[in-house]
Design goal:
Elements lengths: L5 E5 L2 H12 L3 E4 L3 E4 L3 E5 L1 H5 L14 E6 L2 H8 L12 E2 L5 E6 L5 E6 L1 H10 L4 H8 L3 H9 L1
Parallel strand pairs: 1-4, 5-8
Antiparallel strand pairs: 2-3, 3-4, 6-7, 7-8
């Protein structure tokens, strides 16, 4: 068995496609009109109720029980780009997790939670830039030196 993709419900396939292409630079793999699959494994489905054979009222907006996660090398650049979308509802400000990764969460056009986090390699490099040693980064991130080295070399 192999994992294929995650399909999310969207009200307007054209608007959702533009949102994901413009903000996240996703590339379309397949376009079937009311279903679009991106190369990353995310798919958009208009008329989701029809697809899964449920009444329309069973398809909930802002169910807050899952999130779509992205990592970005230029996190500060992404934040600037995100500000161009005045209609985006953020779930608070940027936070920095105890392991050092900065993230922001917001709703997409259809109420799905999106998390964009700083690329983990960039977190390690940011720590190095402040003078931390690999051993200190290992303690901060609660990860072995071997795992961090492997991540940096991947």
């Amino acid at each position: 068995m192999k994992y294929v993709c995650t399909v999310i419900s969207v009200a307007d396939i054209k608007a959702a496609r533009k949102f994901y292409e413009d903000l996240f630079s996703l590339e379309v793999y397949q376009d079937y009109g009311r279903n679009i699959a991106f190369t990353c494994g995310l798919a958009l489905q208009q008329d989701f109720d029809w697809l899964v054979n449920l009444p329309k009222e069973k398809i909930l907006k802002k169910s807050n029980n899952a999130e779509i996660v992205f990592e970005e090398q230029d996190f500060d650049g992404f934040l600037s780009k995100l500000k161009e979308y005045s209609n985006i509802e953020c779930l608070g400000e940027v936070i920095e997790h105890s392991w050092g990764q900065r993230v922001i969460r917001f709703y997409d056009l259809d109420g799905h939670i999106i998390e964009v986090g700083e690329d983990m390699k960039m977190v390690i490099k940011r720590f190095f830039a402040t003078g931390m040693t690999m051993e200190e980064v290992s303690v901060k991130m609660d990860a072995s030196v071997e795992d961090l080295t492997s991540l940096l070399n991947s």
